Amino acid sequence: MSSTASVVTGRRKVAIVGAALADCGRVDDMTPYALHAQAARRALADAGLERTAIDGLASAGLGTLAPVEVAEYLGLRPTWVDSTSVGGSTWEVMAAHAADAIAAGHANVVLLVYGSTARADIKAGRRTGNLSFGARGPLQFEVPYGHTLIAKYAMAARRHMHAYGTTLEQLASVAVQARANAAANPEAMFRTPITVDDVLSSAPIADPFTKLHCCLRSDGGAAILLAAEEYVRDCRPTVPVWVLGTGEYVSHTTMSEWPDFTVSPAAVSGRLAFERAGVRPSDIDFAEIYDAFTYMTLVTLEDLGFCAKGEGGAFVEKNRLTLTGDLPVNTDGGGLSAQHPGMRGLFLLVEAVRQLRGEAGPDRQIHTPDGQLPRLAVASGTGGWFCSSGTVVLGRG
User: Fold this and answer.
1) CA gyration radius, the chain
2) DSSP of 87-145, one letter per residue?
3) β-strand partners of 288
4) Least CB-packed of 34, 65, 93, 376 within 10 Å?
5) Rounded CA gap, 307 and 309, in Å?
6) Pairing relation of β-strands 241-250 and 388-396?
7) How does DSSP classify residue 192?
8) How far apart are CA 95 and CA 246, in angstroms?
């Protein structure tokens, strides 16, 4: 196959043909650039493609000129590039852009790649924990009140509790089920089972969140390769994972401009993705959801349509989110237990691909009630403090 994008008539189908993680967890001996390279090499090996096949690159979060510096480090000269940066939802939004570009013939094979040493940098004193995103622009009107990043999420969670009677125990059950899933994942950073009482009695962070309501901080990297349909037959995986539908949405940056703290931007991005894929939430076999905090999982499940608004608490407390539950969620353990090196949305896509292919491993591979491999998945990333959302519906076929 030529590495030069060609003009095509009609829209081509797009598949994720490669997906891989770099080393994750505690990585003290690698730079973020090295993690990018490691993830990219592993994704290429997974796809069975040569580096020369890549003509598109999407990257964010590293360097002054993020995609340019990463491209140079990886030895790439892409003719299509994307550096959209909208926090944790970046990768779902980039996947949407890449799929559109490939479908239109503007690229053939696009690499999405990320790497971060967020944990190692703090341990080595190279940086500190980011309590806020700065004090410029609209944020200047909130910073004087000490409104930290975590406090924004905590305030939204408290509003949901007030409006719908959601309880701390229900929120804690999200963390408990994420840890149960992580227990079956040898790549997860934390695998020891926890209880609701463990979550409630852990150190307070921002009311109502305790430490175990919050994601961990890790190092790590991930990469996926999206390719046009004519490349699929030449790739290693025997089961293609197709991009069926995508949606993206930007909500707010200033909390005073957020109309309803109990509604996340996934309410829009999810609706668009499902409509474009031609499926309903009830058709989905499992979900990978951004979970920097337990409330994110709960409210995103509501907004994607898996339960009605206000019913998220009752939905999550019945162990539905575990590997054998009605709707397995964050099957690798998520950001609450597996890994969270920053903008984690790319990890959602990697895990979704592994599950759809049946390559998650004997201890955590999920199946449908009739014993078959899952056919449909949704990955939904959230950025900022519910500022943005990207949702991708994937199908095995």
Assistant:
1) 20
2) GGGHHHHHHHHHHHHHHHTS-SEEEEEEEE-HHHHHHTTS----SSS-SSGGGGGTGGG
3) 379
4) 65
5) 7
6) antiparallel
7) S
8) 8
Q: What is the pLDDT along the chain (397 residues), one digit of tens a residue?
A: 444 444 454 689 999 999 999 999 999 999 999 999 999 999 999 999 999 999 999 999 898 898 999 999 999 999 999 999 999 999 999 999 999 999 999 999 999 999 999 899 888 888 776 666 777 888 888 888 877 889 999 999 999 999 999 999 999 999 999 999 999 999 999 999 999 999 999 999 999 999 999 999 999 999 999 999 999 999 999 999 999 999 999 999 999 999 999 999 999 999 999 999 999 999 999 999 999 999 999 999 999 999 999 999 999 998 999 999 999 999 999 999 999 999 999 999 999 999 999 999 999 999 999 999 999 999 999 999 999 999 999 999 8
Residue with tokens 């892409």: 78
Q: How far apart are CA 379 and CA 88, in angstroms?
A: 12
- Half-sphere exposure in the Cβ direction for 116 (13 Å, CA): 23
Pairing of strands 220-228, 241-250: unpaired
